[in-house]
Amino acid sequence: MKIGCPKEIKPQEFRVGITPNAATEAVAHGHEVLIETGAGTGAGFDDAAYLAAGATILQTAAEIFAAADMIVKVKEPQPGERKMLREGQLLFTYLHLAPDPEQTRDLLASGCTAIAYETVTDARGGLPLLAPMSEVAGRLAPQSGSWALQKANGGSGVLMGGVPGVRPANVAIIGGGVVGTAAARVAVGMGANVTVLDRSIPRLSYLDDVFMGRLTTQYSDAAALEELIARMDMVIGAVLIPGAAAPQLIRRDQLALMQPGSVLVDVAIDQGGCFETSKATTHADPIYEVDGIIHYCVANMPGAVARTSTIALGNATMPFMLALADKGWKQACLDDPNLLNGLNVHAGQLTYAAVGKALGIDVVSPQAIVAA
Ligand SMILES: NC(=O)C1=CN([C@@H]2O[C@H](COP(=O)(O)OP(=O)(O)OC[C@H]3O[C@@H](n4cnc5c(N)ncnc54)[C@H](O)[C@@H]3O)[C@@H](O)[C@H]2O)C=CC1
Ligand SMILES: CC(=O)C(=O)O
Ligand SMILES: [Mg+2]
């Protein structure tokens, strides 16, 4: 199979979909790997590293899209990239379709088959291709939020760890999954006073165990949240209902309950965001203010640490990429129901229920697609 990897074109996105190590493995499996020139530069991988891996360097994204049977990327295809997708072509990348009707329409119109990293599952009910980037975004969230808390950035001027005699920052993390746990680890490490909210009691129990009293856990309901936010300097949104649009947990009128200059970090922004006032921002212009509250809503946070993120993502995607290339997408999905859960679009049909529900589009079950 010809596996193509274009350079990412989303603003300030420095990750790349295929590492030289993954290229080496794909070539060893008998595949041809096509990399756009400079695709890996932002992550510290130059063209020479791909050539040494046995890949071919092409000059433009158009050549990659025209030649490849499977496109492997990081971010959802941008409008220009969507125009280059064709019927029968396989796309393997993050999609986040539920909050993105335009992308969904274009993918359906292209006739391609699209497998979304963020809905591939594992045997334990986890999301193995989302998890590595959630680990990164979670670790970055308190770091970015603490920068936003500084006066020069519009924040209230509260220091995360406080100092002797002055209280530390109060940080609430809504959602105690992969992002939330990583965020808690860093926020606790910075000396903040941390509360994690979740709707899963087993998850709260786990966090209570592993943090051994260094944070507070709280069941997440509307009343608890409303009471809590008045005391918080920072609220990190880290909820997920896989594939679905994020539930909105803080309304605009509730911002008035918070102290001016407090910070909302909406990591769940790639699924539409969990605060009513969230809108996606970029690393170039990451924050904005609504009713005195600073919002940080960067939809590709891991792109900021592209080297670490590219290697972590490549480690997780490689076995799936090899299965898709070795067997073809249909056989690979028939053999692995967890990979089948990644199927979001096939030949003009939507195949992921939560996306269909969010966008009001009829869905065909992925099992029916592979059985056909
Ligand atoms: N902005 C960015 O750059 C990135 C964003 N993300 C996003 O971060 C979000 C979280 O991802 P993960 O931690 O990997 O998901 P996860 O599935 O590991 O954790 C989500 C948690 O949210 C909880 N939850 C669901 N509804 C809730 C509610 N109403 N209140 C409280 N908790 C609730 C679940 O019980 C679960 O524990 C996702 O939207 C993901 O796409 C992930 C990586 C990068
Ligand atoms: C998960 C995701 O959207 C990202 O890493 O950018
Ligand atoms: Mg994202």
UniProtKB/TrEMBL annotation:
NAD(+) binds at S134, D198, R203, S220, V239, L240, V267, A268, I269, D270, V298, A299, N300, M301. It is an enzyme of class 1 (oxidoreductase). It holds the Pfam family AlaDh_PNT_N. Keywords: NAD, Nucleotide-binding, Oxidoreductase. Its EC number is 1.4.1.1. One of its GO terms (biological process) is L-alanine catabolic process. GO terms for cellular component: plasma membrane. PROSITE patterns: ALADH_PNT_2 (PS00837). SMART domains: AlaDh_PNT_C, AlaDh_PNT_N. It catalyses: L-alanine + NAD(+) + H2O = pyruvate + NH4(+) + NADH + H(+). The active site is at H96 (proton donor/acceptor), D270 (proton donor/acceptor). PANTHER family: ALANINE DEHYDROGENASE. NCBIfam families: alaDH. Belongs to the AlaDH/PNT family. This is Alanine dehydrogenase. It comes from Antarcticimicrobium sediminis.
